[in-house]
């Protein structure tokens, strides 16, 4: 009785101490460049990057551009460069008609929205109306599939440089920004069962372009492996003349394990390791002349290190952008000043 009382008190204590919130705070403190930093005394203006990554909407393209710009600001500041406030640069470009604003808030159709919110329609009809309303918004807000060329003359570059008393103008392209499947076949990323089943499936059937066909192959491979295990290992519940209503131990074991293998194969097909793919091109121009003093391109692939790692899209893409921009800026500094 005394042990039970101590156990209950422990549970109560744990419950009381577990109240509250978990707070994760990330403060990006810039490195102190020091007086001998390569960019000390020089100013850089970052222009919005051209987005050729086939983005689906203007708002997502804006967020991609903002993340690239923010990372550039951090890395250039860490190397001693001075930078004007990005909102001031953006407003100046708008006032000079270098770039144009486009609304990306949810517009949709007011009449459709009113009907959806009225509650007079069935669930099926409400779903159809919602689909058409979202499609209407997407058509109004769809990113241009062929953005074409939007260049700047040397005179425009020099004008921007004079406005912000800048030494360099940084421009670039977002060439790729998508999710792909990690091609590494390692168990600590995929898990043991998906690794075994997918490896056997790929060896037996090769790569199937159809998702449905690939899922069927995984189930078939799992069933075959399960049948082999059942025939050689036996029933997990011991020996017997009849298992699951089927006479003959070996046959019943093979069917049982084959069924388990098919289920595991179906589940392992759903286990995919996402990989963030980001490709950037950067140009650095002299503000006074417009001459290109540096250009380079980088492609970064980021995926979780193991099944326990954070695999959410924002973490993967932020890491890819941070790595790509850091490498480009460091290479620019080494190439130009060191």
Secondary structure layout:
Blueprint: H1 2-17, E1 44-46, E2 50-51, H2 58-78, H3 86-95, H4 110-118, H5 123-141, H6 154-163, E3 168-181, H7 187-190, H8 192-205, H9 211-233, E4 242-243, E5 246-247, H10 249-270, E6 274-286, E7 292-302, H11 313-337
Parallel strand pairs: 1-3, 2-3
Antiparallel strand pairs: 3-6, 4-5, 6-7
Helix pairs in contact: 2-11, 4-5, 8-9, 8-10, 9-10
Question: What can you see in these coordinates?
Answer:
The protein is an alpha/beta fold and 338 residues long. Helix content is 51%, strand content 14%. It contains 11 helices and 7 strands. It has helices spanning 2-17, 58-78, 86-95, 110-118, 123-141, 154-163, 187-190, 192-205, 211-233, 249-270, 313-337; strands spanning 44-46, 50-51, 168-181, 242-243, 246-247, 274-286, 292-302. The strands form 2 sheets. Strands 1, 2, 3, 6 and 7 form a 5-stranded mixed sheet that branches. Strand 6 and strand 7 (292-302) form a beta hairpin. Helix 8 packs across helix 10 (249-270) and helix 9 (211-233) runs antiparallel to helix 10 (249-270). It is extended.
Question: How do you describe this structure in short?
Answer:
With 338 residues, the chain is of the alpha/beta class. 51% of the residues lie in helices and 14% in strands. Strand 6 (274-286) and strand 7 (292-302) form a beta hairpin.
* Helix-strand category: alpha/beta
Instruction: List how many beta strands DSSP finds.
Output: 7
Q: Tell me the number of helical segments per DSSP (H or I, 4 or more residues long).
A: 11
Query: What is the percent of helical residues?
Result: 40-55%
Shape: extended
- Quick one: biggest sheet? 5 strands, mixed
Instruction: Estimate the mean pLDDT confidence.
Output: 75
Question: Whole-Å distance between the termini?
Answer: 75 Å
Which strand-content bin applies to the residues? Answer: 5-15%
N-to-C series of helices and strands = HEEHHHHHEHHHEEHEEH
The whole-angstrom Rg is 29 Å
Uncertain spans, ≥5 residues at pLDDT below 50?
A: 141-149, 240-248
